[in-house]
Amino acid sequence: IFITVTGCRDVITGAHFPRLKDGAILCNAGHFNLELDVAALEQSARRKYEARHNIQAYELANGRTVFVIAEGRLVNLAAADGHPAEIMDM
Asked: 3-class secondary structure for 56-87?
């Protein structure tokens, strides 16, 4: 499980995706939705599908699948149901 919270661009990039273990979960809780290079992930994926609500699965050329929560957007805003204190504390 990788949770970015840096506020920086390109924390996890296209160079990282082939090295992730099968079933890796990525989400972003940083300042903007630029921490995960989702565009590079989409380009390198041979298949993309919605595994569950707000969870996108990317099947890579090496056969591994990477899961991204809320399309790489701010998870506490994009994947939450409202704004309870438990979510806003993330």
From this structure: EEEEECCCCEEEEEHHHCEHHHHCCCCCCHHH
Query: Domain of 19?
Result: 1-52
Residue 69: inside a domain: no
Taking alpha carbons only, the member of 74, 89, 88 closest to residue 7 is 74
Distance CA 10, CA 14 (A): 9
pLDDT at 1: 96
Instruction: Classify the C-alpha dihedral 4-8-73-67 as positive or negative.
Output: negative
Mark the ranges of the chain whose per-residue pLDDT is less than 70: 76-90
Predicted TM-score (pTM) of the model is 0.84
Q: How many domains does the chain have?
A: 1
| Rg of the chain, C-alpha, whole Å | 13
